[in-house]
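Input sequence (243 aa), recorded before submission:
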Amino acid sequence: MDFRDRVVLVTGAASGIGRGIALRFLEAGASVVAFDLNPSAIPGAVEVTGDVSVEGDVCAAVERARETYGRLDVLVNNAAVEFNGDVTQLEPDDWDRQIAVNLRGAYLLSRYAIPLMRAHGGVIVNISSVHAFVSWPGCPAYDASKAGLNALTRAMALDHGREGIRVNTICPGYIDTPLMQKALRDSPDREEALRRILAAHPAGRIGTPQDIAEAVLFLASPGASFITGATLVIDGGMTLTRT
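Predicted structure, token format:
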């Protein structure tokens, strides 16, 4: 997969899945704009610091791509946050923040990226979650935001397909990121928690950011030119074991 002469904007690029995606696109020859609240420090990428839920920050990130490279070919909406608690425990501000970052952010980035793509076509890949269709206790806002992102994907694929713009969703399961490692450290028994997670995966392991990055590159490549409006689950078979 050769992405020379292609410009890619990745949100949430400073760590975890987003960083893995940005690095893989750079390896494939793409020009990468890395957008995150925190400095990304990705060698070779153009860094834009900002909040995906703030319209002015989003405009600045897309404009940076246009000013620097004159085009935008691929948008990866990856940025997300998660605060736990059932609906009686979750503070309204935490609910609003999750919807703002996880769903409004993808809407805003797409709103400003699509006009740049219309002249030559483009690809949007939304990083959702298996939480879009299976649930764990204490995740109502996260579940709702990810289910909404899957629906947004379908709607945009329908609205913009004839403009040469494809839109797809990837739904990761457990991925070995700094956030997952923190959750394991915070658990009462890290080894038992890890054992239970591994036991739930028919693939026998937890996913890596590279697993997701390879799928994103495929969906952004000419080899996926007839794929749009699709949802790709990448979870090592974990959701097959849930009843």
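Checked by second reader. Residues 53 and 100 are 5 Å apart (CA to CA).
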